[in-house]
Amino acid sequence: MNAIELLKEDHNKVSRLFQKVKATEESKHKKLFEKIKEELDVHTHIEETIFYPKLKEHKELEDITLEGIEEHHQAKIFLRELFNLSDDSEKFEPKLKVLMEDITHHVQEEEGEMFPKVKKVFDEATLHELGKQMEKEKQSFKKSQTANAGK
Ligand SMILES: [Fe+2]
Ligand SMILES: [Fe+2]
Questions:
Q1: What's the domain count of the chain?
Q2: Measured in angstroms, how far is the CA atom of residue 45 from the centroid of ligand 1?
């Protein structure tokens, strides 16, 4: 799978979870949020450690990549805040809603602006190699998460 296909697959997974949040009652949202956080943690990690640094080497991809990094930064603050909220907090639902709106916007920018530019700059072989690297990093990140959770 090439890098773009892999990242789009992640995006789709997250967007399906967002649809579930919208279609279910609030009592189910905490569990869904945990899944959303898990997906976004690994996704932002592989973008930030492998994909974005590669993009930043190219002048024409620099601005959009720097913007992406800032959007990740904001999303992480939200994820942490949501994670730390008490179960009965009235802030949970509105914060989750804003998180979903922000992520949807970020994904639209990646798929609508960033990825088309990336396809122009990198050839198929490079995209494939990047995809392979990210797949590998995904597995080891997940492993380290599970190991930490057991401590
Ligand atoms: Fe991203
Ligand atoms: Fe992404």
A1: 1
A2: 9
Query: How many whole angstroms from 86 Cα to the centroid of ligand 1?
Result: 28
- Taking the centre of ligand 2 as the mean of its atom positions, its distance from the CA of residue 22, in whole angstroms, is 21
Please indicate, yes or no, if residue 150 is contained in any of the structural domains.
Answer: no
Determine the pLDDT at residue 146.
83
Q: Is the pTM of this model over 0.90?
A: yes
pLDDT number for residue 88: 87
Q: Which domain holds residue 31?
A: 3-143
Per-residue tokens: 18? 């967002």
> Which ligand sits closest to the CA of 76?
1
CA 88 to centroid of ligand 2, rounded, Å: 31
b/e 86-115 (16+ beta carbons within 10 angstroms → b):
eeeeeebeebbeebbeebeebbeebeeebe
pLDDT digits (tens, 9 = 90+) for 71-114: 999 999 999 999 999 878 999 999 999 999 999 999 999 999 99
In a domain, 149, yes or no: no
Q: Tell me, what CATH number does 119's domain have?
A: 1.20.120.520
Ligand approaching nearest to the C-alpha of 67:
1
Question: Does the residue 151 lie in any domain?
Answer: no
For residue 14, being part of any structural domain is answered with yes
| Ligand 2: centre distance to CA 43 (Å) | 7
Confirm if 82 and 96 have CB atoms less than 8 A apart: yes
Q: What is the pLDDT of residues 45-81, one digit of tens each?
A: 999 999 999 999 999 999 999 999 999 999 999 999 9
